Amino acid sequence: MAELNNTAHRVLDVAERYTQTHGFNAFSYKDLQNEVGVKTSSIHYYFPTKQDLALKMVERYIDRFNASLNSISNEQSIGLKRLDKLAQVYVDVVKQGKFCMCGMLASDILSLPEAVKSKLCDFFQMIEDWIAEAIELGIAQDDVTESIDIKTTAAHYLASLEGGMLIARTKNEPAYLKAITTEVLVLIKR
Amino acid sequence: MAELNNTAHRVLDVAERYTQTHGFNAFSYKDLQNEVGVKTSSIHYYFPTKQDLALKMVERYIDRFNASLNSISNEQSIGLKRLDKLAQVYVDVVKQGKFCMCGMLASDILSLPEAVKSKLCDFFQMIEDWIAEAIELGIAQDDVTESIDIKTTAAHYLASLEGGMLIARTKNEPAYLKAITTEVLVLIKR
DNA sequence: TATAATCTACCTATTGATAGATATATTTAA
DNA sequence: TTAAATATATCTATCAATAGGTAGATTATA
Is the CB of residue A159 less than 8 Å from the CB of residue B183? Predict the structure, then answer.
């Protein structure tokens, strides 16, 4: 993302916020103009079409999320605690009244280019792999039961996060998500 | 929903399909006109604003879903099997390339009237209560462990369904959702 | 005839997008 | 070291298409 200049990043910041709160089809170049303080034509200069914007936005988001995951891994060596930290990230997003960007874009999948769809799959796979690694670590540390299928459990934890987030945001109740993720961790404990 | 005539129902059918595939903000009255074969002005006759349309659409959807739940309950007296049947309903939706209507609307929550938001909460609560009842039954039948918190587990199962559906649809892989729900049921087995 | 349903015709606002002018840096060549 | 050339970034002005919505005429039905 080093190739994007300051203005382009500010545009993505606003687009990202709109996407996570209202959805990708719920804001216009004019909305971006009003908030960034640069004309719509200038935004088209950086992102010729809205689909280009979607792609750059999701790429930047994935990069940042990946960095967050690495950061958790570096700070926390206990598998189970890593999973709990991830849940906290999701809970915090709900607290801001937002939804996961990729979850949001996933709902608009049919109006987005194939390149974006592909990135969304990458995103989900990236988290799933990270979760699977944390579970494996948990098993090695004797905190997690060996009787589970690691890949399926990783998918299951991710699904709980995304779905719990969706419902918790609707209810405006972050604790709803927290309770769910905690329960999953209890269920897979040794 | 008895007060709606044939045309109104056909409009809702198309709106429902668009909502579950593309999202509520991704279709117009003109789209409905083209598919239903009646002018946009006639659609405005039944649904003065698009928000009115959203409300009627979600009300009808909830009624139908409620009927499905009742139908499962009537046909299946084993708690665990009821839960599995519900999962199959969700898997079938993914097979059609669709997402849960209320999950879809939940992502557009900020551009929808309060009345719709309220209905979405009702919807999630309705399923959660139904799931909780099935779990209770499962416990009574000695199929489900007593050590779980029923309400939280119900929320957890619902979240897995919604989130798993979202991801499975993105991957175009219905089996992904099936694997997740099966795993949850295994985890709560006695 | 009165009501319900549908139509034609139109409106205003907004959408994503483009053309072309202009200003400001940056690089290149004399 | 200037001066010219080029690239970058922003602007004004505008476009055709589409959005949701309305007024009022017309047709079908009870």
Answer: no
Write out chain B residues lying below 8 Å of A163, CB-based: 103, 158-166
- Average pLDDT (A61-65) is 97
Spatial separation of the C-alpha atoms in residues B28 and B48, rounded to whole Å: 13
Cβ–Cβ under 8 Å, residues A137 and A82: yes
CB atoms within 10 A of CB B2: 4
Phi (first) and psi of residue A108, to 5 degrees? -100, 15
- Identify the three-state secondary structure at position A174: helix
Q: Is the CB of A42 under 7 A from strand D?
A: yes
The CA distance from B104 to A135, in Å, is 30
Domain ranges of chain B: 58-187
Write out the two tokens for B155.
């929320």
Q: State the best of B107, B109, B157 to mutate against chain A, taking most chain A CBs within 10 Å.
A: B107
Q: How confident is the model at residue B17 (pLDDT cuts 50, 70, 90)?
A: very high
The rounded distance, in Å, linking the Cα atoms of A156 and A101 is 19
Which residues 27-56 of B are in CB contact (within 8 Å) with A? none
Q: Which CATH superfamily is domain B58-187 in?
A: Tetracycline Repressor, domain 2 (1.10.357.10)
User: For residues A20 and A104, is the Cβ–Cβ distance under 8 A?
Assistant: yes
Asked if B63 contacts B127 with a C-beta cutoff of 8 angstroms, the reply is no
